[in-house]
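Friendly challenge for the regulars: who can give me the C-alpha cells for this chain first? No prize, just bragging rights.
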Amino acid sequence: LPGHGRSSAPRVEYTATYFTDVVEKFLDALDLESVLLVGESIGASIALALAARRNPRLAGVVALNPYDYAAGIRRSSPLANVLFAVMTWPVIGSVVVRTGTKGILRRVMEGGVYDRRNLPSDLIEVLHTCGKLPGHADAIRSLIRNSQSWIDARAAYATATMPITLAYGNHDWSRPEDRQANRHILRGARSVDLEHCGHFSCLDQPRRIAALIRDELSRAKGGVR
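First reply, four minutes later:
Bragging rights claimed.
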C-alpha cells in the first residue's frame, strides 16, 4: 500500500477511497481475475469496499479485523491514545511521528497482539526502517486525520454480494457493537471469532488464518487465484 512498507508515499490525502482506488488499479494493472482478496486492519476494510463495488475481478474476500470504527489504534493502549492524538496536531505532530524510537514502536505494536511473544523483533526493525522513508511520516499523519473516511465507507458494505468471511480476534480493538454492526450489514458473510487473538491476527494465529483462507478458496465460486 502507498505509504506502507517500502512503497512510495505520494503527497495525497490517505482516505479509504484513495486506498481502495489504488488496490483496484493494481488488480487492473496485473489483469488479475477470480481473486480471493485477503486483508487485515485497513486491508480488510479495503477488501470489503471493493466487494461493495462488486469489483468483477474478485471471487471472494477474507476480512480480518476491519479497521472501520472510531479511535482505532488509539484504543490499544494509553500510550497509543496519546501518541496518535498528538500526531494530528500542527507542527508538533510532525516532530513526534518523525522522532519515534523502536522501543516506542514496539510498545504501540504490542497493543495489537494477544501474546507479546508473537511480535518478532525483526518485524519491528523493518517497520521502524520503513517509517523513516521519504514521505512515510506525512502519510501516517494523513491516514490518522482521515480516519472518519473508513467509518463512512461501512455504509456501502451492504451492496456486497460475493462470498465473504468476516473474522475478529476476541482481543481486537473493535468493540462488540462495532462487530455486530458489520455482521448486520454483511448479512450473508460467514462470521468467525478468533480466540487468543488481537488486532494483528496473522501474527497471533497464523495457522488459523491460513485455514480460513483455504476454506474461503473452496467456498468462492468460479475458481480463485
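The radius of gyration is 17 Å. The chain has a mean pLDDT of 95. Your move, everyone else.
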